[in-house]
Amino acid sequence: GAARAIVAVKAATEPAERRLKLIELLEANLSAEDGEFLASLANDRSDRVRALASAYLARIGWQTDADALV
Asked: According to the model, what pLDDT value does residue 66 have?
């Protein structure tokens, strides 16, 4: 909840390495509630951020639109 909101606001203005570290903070309490934020990272300019977000989405069982097409 609150941690995700802080990460979302802060990550938007940070360089890729810091965005990655901020997103890693979500891992401890990762839940389906994080899905929308993580899905929003699908277009992040960093490959590593996109990969981490994708891995976290898989862990919470979040289905993306691309998954639905398979």
From this structure: 56
CA separation for the pair 31, 43 (Å, rounded): 21
pTM for the model stands at 0.83
Q: Is 12 exposed, middle or buried (0-12, 13-18, 19+ CB in 10 A)?
A: exposed
What is the Cα–Cα distance from 63 to 66, expressed in whole angstroms?
8
Please report, for residues 1, 2, 46, 66, the alpha-carbon distance to residue 29 in angstroms, rounded to integers and kept in the order given. Answer: 10, 12, 23, 25
Distances in Å between the Cα of 51 and the Cα atoms of 20, 56, 69 are: 10, 9, 20
Q: How far apart are CA 52 and CA 61, in angstroms?
A: 14
